[in-house]
């Protein structure tokens, strides 16, 4: 099992700080189509997404790492994000959060058709507990009343096989 302690936190700060702003700006553009005012970044890591939040957007953060975070402080959010985190969570953990929002944005590894699972770079059986394909992901969200609003197959190079999804509640 992956250890998300202070060493992991320190590595995230050092290794990803140079690309964090670019990735976060891409993600904020992606979710801007629903104009969220309150956001929960679930699995926020070191907090880059919140650090680059647009003015007038209140972004709360939650992570299992011992990092500075706001925690889940509202009963309802316009948007909950799972950037590189949904694949790490057991089903019961994210389902309870769906009741707190009408929109969910996420990035998740999607295995290319024909790629053997055992040799795929995102196959991490002790870290990733759920690796759905596009259809399974969309069906899972539909079962909770969400529809797919947008899907980006290449979040940003060089993030191979990482897809972005935006789901909204309703028809």
Write the layout of secondary structure elements.
Layout lengths: L5 H26 L6 E5 L5 H4 L6 E5 L16 E5 L7 H8 L4 E7 L24 H10 L2 E7 L9 E8 L2
Explain what the structure shows:
By secondary structure, the chain is α/β, with parallel strands linked by helices. It has a single domain (6-169), classed as Rossmann fold, CATH 3.40.50. The protein has helices spanning 6-31, 48-51, 91-98, 134-143; strands at 38-42, 58-62, 79-83, 103-109, 146-152, 162-169. Strands 2-1-3-4-6-5 form a six-stranded mixed β-sheet, with helices on both faces. It is globular and about 45 Å long. The mean pLDDT is 88.
In short:
This protein is α/β, with parallel strands linked by helices and 171 residues long. 28% of the residues lie in helices and 22% in strands.
- Give the strand content: 15-25%
Ranges where pLDDT stays below 50 over 5 or more residues in a row are: none
CATH class: Alpha Beta
**Number of H/I helices:** 4
Straight-line N-to-C gap: 39 Å
What is the total domain count?
1
Structural class: alpha/beta
Q: Order of strands side by side in the largest beta sheet?
A: 2-1-3-4-6-5
Instruction: Categorize the overall geometry.
Output: globular
What can be said about the biggest beta sheet? 6 strands, mixed
């Amino acid at each position: 099992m992956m250890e998300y302690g202070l060493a992991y936190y320190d590595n995230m700060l050092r290794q990803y700080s140079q690309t964090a702003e670019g990735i976060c700006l891409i993600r904020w553009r992606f979710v801007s189509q629903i104009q969220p005012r309150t956001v929960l970044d679930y699995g926020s890591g070191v907090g880059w997404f919140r650090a680059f939040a647009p003015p007038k957007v209140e972004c709360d953060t939650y992570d299992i790492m011992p990092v500075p975070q706001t925690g889940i402080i509202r009963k309802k959010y316009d948007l909950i994000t799972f950037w590189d985190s949904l694949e790490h969570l057991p089903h019961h953990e994210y389902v309870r959060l769906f009741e707190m929002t009408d929109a969910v944005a996420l990035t998740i590894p999607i295995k290319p058709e024909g790629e053997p699972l055992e040799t795929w770079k995102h196959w991490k059986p002790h870290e990733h507990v759920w690796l759905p394909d596009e259809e399974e992901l969309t069906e899972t969200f539909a079962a909770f009343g969400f529809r797919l609003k947008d899907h980006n197959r290449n979040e940003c190079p060089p993030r191979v096989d990482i897809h972005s999804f935006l789901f909204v509640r309703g028809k």
